[in-house]
Recover the amino acids of this structure.
């Protein structure tokens, strides 16, 4: 999925999602957790 990250985020952006923050995931921190938001009516 890493190679397609830009395309995936671009598609979510077209669907009304906004990337808010990316943080290290649980465990050893090698995974990332992305937080997104969008208006309720989107």
């Amino acid at each position: 999925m890493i190679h397609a990250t830009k395309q995936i985020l671009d598609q979510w952006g077209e669907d009304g999602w906004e990337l808010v923050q990316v943080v290290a995931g649980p465990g050893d921190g090698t995974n990332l957790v992305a937080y997104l938001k969008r208006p309720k009516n989107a």
Summary: The longest helix spans residues 5-14. The chain has a mean pLDDT of 89.
